[in-house]
Amino acid sequence: MRVDFYQLGRDPAEKALVPLARKTLEAGERLLIVSGDEAQLGRIDRALWEEDRAGFLAHDMAGGEHDALQPILLSPEAEPANGAGFMAITDGVWREADPPFARTLFLFDEGTIDAARACWSMLGKRGGVERRYWKQDGGRWVEGP
């Protein structure tokens, strides 16, 4: 399992997530986007429709009859009803999944940095977990130390 920690700087999660979601789809993967913040899920929904200049990214909110068909599914739960192998956690609150996702994108900001540090340490004690840290540099993600 690989966990990529993305420290938000310039952009909020809904804006920073759009290019990450596009790259996930380009890699032939499905994505589950998880947040316990309903308002944040709404902003992400709008961003996936409106802010990507290359065109909208097909997605839906979990709980519909076509969840299994969605390349990107937005949900408050870490349950991949769309068969996703990748999960993006956008509210800075770690969630366990059974079985674990092949890759988790963990987005956090200054308000959730302590929880992200605790999560980094907790995952470092587990076997079979590869951790990477990314930070925003202008409009790009760069891998940090």
Short description:
This protein is of the alpha/beta class and 145 residues long. It has a single domain (2-143), classed as DNA polymerase III subunit chi (Rossmann fold, 3-Layer(aba) Sandwich). 27% of the residues lie in helices and 26% in strands.
Any chance you could write out the topology, listing elements then pairs?
Blueprint: E1 2-7, H1 13-26, E2 31-34, H2 38-50, E3 60-61, E4 72-75, E5 86-89, E6 103-108, H3 113-124, E7 130-137, E8 140-143
Parallel strand pairs: 1-6, 1-7, 2-4, 2-5, 3-4, 5-6
Antiparallel strand pairs: 7-8
Helix pairs in contact: 1-2
Sheet with the most strands: spatial strand order? 3-4-2-5-6-1-7-8
Total beta strands: 8
Look at the structure and name the CATH superfamily: DNA polymerase III subunit chi
| Rg, Cα atoms, Å | 14 Å
Which fold name corresponds to the CATH topology?
Rossmann fold
